[in-house]
Amino acid sequence: MERTYSFSISPMDTVSLRPQVRDALERYSEILSRRQHPKMWELTDKINSVPKVSQAVSDKRRRRRTVLGLMNWLLSLVLLLPGLMEPQALLPPLLVGAICFGIGTVILWRNLRAVLAILSMPLGLLLLFGACNNPKTLGCFLIFSLILLALGAAALITRRRAPRDPYDRAAGKLLEGRENPELRVLRVLFDSDGMVITHAAAQENHRVPYSEMAMILETKDLLLPITDEVIVTLQKQDQCTGMLTDLREWLQEQTEYYIL
After folding, report:
1. Domain ranges for the chain
2. Contact 5, 250 (CB under 8 A)
3. I want to staple 186 with a disulfide (CB 3.0 to 4.6 A). Which of 9, 32, 70, 205 is the partner?
């Protein structure tokens, strides 16, 4: 008796399933990359095998550095502003303030660039306004105000934005339209010769032999058969005939099968 396992196609909760599809696409890309560049991945695996600091410790260190940067930056203002007004009499505080300003700026630039912009630009505008309106007394702040404005603008322009995730975008495209209840007319069948996609109104079925499958990925709630032309997303809950464990064993004999 021929083994058959069939799936209906029901509407998907694309919001909750999108992370699983995203992870599956990333794994698929990694598998292909490992095939093409085995030596590079061998080196990468060796590097990744080195024990790393935990995320909690890393976050704690980052917070400590950020507080240190803010303290240095604010302390520099206390020393720099009086020192700029009387540089000859207050040369030591001026030099210490310049060092604190440099340290604070470097730390904030690396960790909180947007905060550095928020701190620098208003202060730079305030000092520039004072220097222009009272050049005799506050003209000494003119150069420092321009430095602050330039620093704030540079920090604002180059502030780090959250990188776009190409796998998440690809997952969104793959799941596009999967909420549509009209997809219920489709069926996917696995038999001894391959995968068959059927349509209730179609005269012919689309068959994909196992030899043409690149691999099948399994996530918590999905099966994703992958061919050179298409990635099919099947919900485990939509399996109509057969048991998932039997199907998994069967497919592992037919093609490459990965469980995420």
Report:
1. 5-34+180-259, 59-157
2. yes
3. 9
